[in-house]
Amino acid sequence: MIEPYPDNLATIPACFECNNGFSNDEEYVACFLDVLKESIYRGYSRSLATTQRLEKNANLKMLLDEQIKVTNGTVQYTFDEKRLCRILIKLAKGHAGFELDYISFDDSDIQIDYDFVFNMSEADIDRFEEIPQTNLFPEVGSRSCMTPYIVQNISTGESAAFMFWNEVQDNQYRYQVSYNSSGGICVKIVIFELLYCRVDFD
Asked: For residue 191, what is the DSSP state?
């Protein structure tokens, strides 16, 4: 995200090891995505934060220069999938914990799927962007217990709850927390409107 951060930015408590143990990977992922987007889309410029990070971290700049190359107008890229997935799972756990009130994922089966928007069809994007209806409700008092959008049919009295997207920072970061078809937790994340990710905890 770009500073200044939103006033209502969601945060959750974390121990020193968890809070700092991901720093290098977070920096790598943020810079990689920003530089990749700049390489692909005309008119988009990397953020000042990315420029400053790469000026201070010569090794990271060298790595990204190797991973993202533009030759005759064609962008070729590779990336460290392990580092990317590590950050995406960390983010998903944080969002699920914040929305559903501190859940333990130690025994969860985790499935992660992601892709870049330029590899996705319109149908893929539409499916990803869906606002899911839910018949399950989290613990009373949790954020998600209070934030679903509830629609009621005034004729029949039937009602339905929908889990909307949380727009953290425009065109930079958004996420959605809901339940999947098996009753597990589903977290969707979009970063820079470039990377689309879904993490399921069952």
From this structure: E
pLDDT over 70 at 144, yes or no: no
Q: How far apart are CA 166 and CA 186, in angstroms?
A: 14
Domain ranges of the chain: 16-201
Strands 74-77 and 68-71: antiparallel
Phi, psi at 10, each rounded to 5°:
-75, 135
Phi/psi at 135 (5° precision): -110, 0
39 contact partners, CB below 8 Å, separation of at least 6: 68, 70, 75, 77
User: Across the chain, what does the average pLDDT equal?
Assistant: 85
What's the whole-model pTM score? 0.82
Element (H, E) at 40: helix 23-40
Give tens-digit pLDDT for 110-142.
999 999 999 999 999 999 999 887 665 555 444
